[in-house]
Design goal:
alpha+beta; two-stranded antiparallel sheet; elongated
Length: 67
Amino acid sequence: MAVQKSRVTRSRRGMRRAHDGLTKPTLSVDPATGETHRRHHVSPEGYYKGRQIIDKSVKVEEEDNEE
C-alpha cells in the first residue's frame, strides 16, 4: 500500500482538485422561436437549428387494443 512521505499542503491539494468542479450546461437561443435550450439538443417546442423537427401540434392517438 502506498503511503505518502510527507503531508500534502492545502495549496497542493487545491491545485489537484482545481478541475473537479461541475459546470453548468451550455445554453443557446433558438433563432426561430427565441427559446433557450441546451446546445445540440432539440428545444421543448421541437425546433433544432431554426427548423421545426418535431411537430408538437399533432397529438398522437392511442389505439385501444386491449379488448
